[in-house]
Design a protein that fits this description.
Elements: H1 2-18, H2 22-27, E1 35-36, E2 39-40, E3 42-43, H3 54-67, H4 77-97, E4 105-108, H5 111-126, E5 132-136, H6 145-154, E6 157-161, H7 171-177, E7 182-188, H8 200-209, E8 214-217, H9 229-232, E9 236-240, E10 251-255, H10 257-262, E11 273-276, E12 281-283, H11 297-313, H12 315-334, E13 339-341, E14 351-356, H13 361-369, E15 373-374, E16 376-378, H14 383-389, E17 394-398, H15 405-422
Bound molecules: pyridoxal-5'-phosphate.
Length: 423
Amino acid sequence: MLVMNKQHNTNQTSKAMASFSVEKIRADFPILAEKIRNKPLVYLDNAATCQKPQAVIDSIVQLYSHDYANVHRGVHTLSVRSTDKFEGARSKIKEFINAASEKEIIFVRGATEAVNLVAQSYGKANIKHGDEILITAMEHHSNIVPWQMLCEQTGAVLKVAPINTQGELIFSEFENLISDKTRMVSVVHMSNALGTVNPVKNIIASAHDRNIPVLLDGAQAIPHMKIDVRDLDCDFYVFSGHKLYGPSGVGVLYGKQGLLEAMPPYQGGGDMIRKVTFAETEYNTLPYKFEAGTPSIADVVGLGAAIDYLNEIGIEAIAAHEAELLTYATGQARQIKGLKIIGEAAEKGAILSFVLDKVHPHDIGTMLDNLGIAIRAGHHCAMPVMDFFKVPATARASFAMYNTKQEIDVLMEGIKSLIEVFG
Ligand SMILES: Cc1ncc(COP(=O)(O)O)c(C=O)c1O
């Protein structure tokens, strides 16, 4: 039976890959037809945020034009329509990440808010003075600062597992840092600064051996690979809609139901309550207990449309296309004299961070913009990673399903031309 299912999945994947057409996909993203400084846009800043297909844009226009009202509170037709679409998106996300129940899908503003929620709710309830929280040296600031804040509030200690010069987690060191004081492991699934994909299954197994919960920061991983939270067995998984072809302003905290049930609310207000008197408040059930106030309704609906779109293309086909782009871009970049790739992990997602001998990353960014090429230059909200590699910043090209090898050629030509200018 298992073999049959596997065969079925493999057939589905090959079917999806056979029908993958980057030109067809590009036509779904109106912004890709823009000209920047009279040049065709080459958008390679997808790790910061990715562009939106027409289907997502239409879903928002449709909602505001025909179906919009506040959710959960009304019996009138528009409120019912809005609520159905909103809760429909929750179900799509549940399926997309294979959560056990809609109760495990909490809508938040983004990955950042999700980590803060876990730190302040789970953390304050379970982490005390002298306890330890273990992260890695490649975390985004949003998986560092919320834990530092918790440490300030509780007297807990933040431990950081080191990385090697390839930009990979040194797993043995990570294991050595797990102690009988560790109360939480919080790790990035795929690094935004380096592209490294962490061995999250091993990390989770190690932590669970000692009954320590694991939060995975999936902000970068989720647009590039199949996420199955039950197969991973992570306790929390966080991501943002805007990096998943959906709108900004919405993200998801997945948490195992038992953990979420036991956690106190993060914020108080409307919708997260069952009964309020001045003497006391009875909190709502999951997932509403963690969704105080009017949510970002249209953005949630837009995220649902993004999931539909992704399902239609097939995440495996997207992953295969992006892997090809990364291999191609890495090969091209290695041939450029004076270019150094920052982050050469064996397991890597579609991110190429680099520095040039004689050109500051900000100049790279500005000069490439003159050619219509959008990349990111900076510390990528991962200052400790920059410190580790002893660079002030990097230039980062990050790829999405709609990018092409031709665009990578344009990027490489652009880099070569600016190396010539800077001599
Ligand atoms: C790895 C990683 N984690 C977390 C975040 C934070 O996401 P957001 O700003 O959407 O909350 C980002 C954003 O770049 C990221 O790359």
